[in-house]
Write a structure and sequence with these properties.
- This protein is α/β, with parallel strands linked by helices.
- The chain has a single domain, classed as 4-Layer Sandwich (CNF1/YfiH-like putative cysteine hydrolases), CATH 3.60.140.
- It contains 6 helices and 15 strands.
- The strands form 3 sheets. It has a 6-stranded mixed sheet with strand order 1-2-15-7-3-5, with no helix packed on it. The chain has a 6-stranded mixed sheet with strand order 4-6-9-8-10-14. A 3-stranded antiparallel sheet has the order 11-13-12.
- A hairpin with a 7-residue loop joins β1 and β2.
């Protein structure tokens, strides 16, 4: 189990659980190939059982910035073509896979969600975003904050955001095609020995702050998937085909579980 497997109690986020699997849990990839899909599914089901996760929805990533609202009617389903999930449903865990891209976790700090559609009582809102360089370029975290506000009337100042493990600037070397997307963040770009590196986590923090999330409400795991080879899969480091990936998850449990 990952050391990021948090169970937080108290006024901040009663019943909140969020974290990320590790390579010892096996690949969690949501693949299109049937054989690979079954392998990832078997590993996910084992992980859910070990983690006491009974209700879940998982993304089949598009490597973009689309976000979907899910409810218990989406239990044990794959949400295709999106890179973020949001819910105000208790006991429903949001899940997606990562292998250098960052999982970014969201939860409302104190106030209950106020859905603009028929009420889903008793739950705060939670969200989970997949932030690779394309998602960062598309400001997926800003879109997540806007989605939570528009769907659940949750003020950005009431949101917490946590940046999970991902590839850090020390190893995220880029060429011009990627670099061209990030000139608005010059302080997050470094050049060493003629090579260019980008700090995606630093850009995520800037985007979160610009979206209204308070700086003190943003936390960072400070973990690099490339550096921590014994703990995490890394697409850039491992260069496996097919990709091996971890499972990021977040859920808000009712008190009587």
């Amino acid at each position: 189990m990952s050391s990021m497997n948090h169970i937080q109690e108290g006024d901040l986020a009663r019943g909140l659980r969020y974290g990320c699997s590790t390579r010892i849990d096996g690949t969690m990839l949501v693949a299109t190939n049937n054989e690979l899909f079954l392998l990832g599914q078997q590993n996910r089901e084992k992980f859910f059982q070990q983690s006491n996760i009974n209700h879940w929805a998982v993304c089949r990533l598009a490597h973009g910035a689309d976000i979907r609202v899910v409810t218990m009617s989406d239990d044990k389903t794959v949400a295709y073509g999106c890179d973020g999930l949001v819910t105000a449903t208790l006991n429903l865990f949001l899940c997606l896979t990562v292998a250098d891209c960052f999982p970014v976790y969201f939860w409302s700090k104190n106030k209950k969600a106020k859905p603009r559609t028929p009420p889903r009582r008793g739950a705060r809102v939670i969200g989970l975003a997949h932030a690779g360089w394309r998602g960062v370029s598309g400001n997926i975290v800003g879109k997540m904050v806007s989605k939570i506000n528009s769907e659940f009337a949750c003020n950005p100042g009431d949101l917490m955001a946590a940046i999970g493990p991902g590839i850090r600037q020390c190893h995220f070397e880029v060429k011009e095609d990627v670099l061209n997307n990030f000139f608005d963040f010059p302080k997050q770009i470094a050049t060493r020995n003629g090579r260019t590196y980008i700090a995606l986590a630093g850009i995520l923090k800037k985007q979160l702050s610009a979206s209204g999330v308070l700086p003190n409400n943003i936390v960072d795991s400070d973990e690099c998937t490339y550096c921590l080879g014994e703990k995490y899969f890394s697409y850039r480091r491992d260069k496996t085909d097919p990709i091996e990936a971890m499972l990021a998850y977040i859920g808000l449990e009712s008190r009587d579980l």
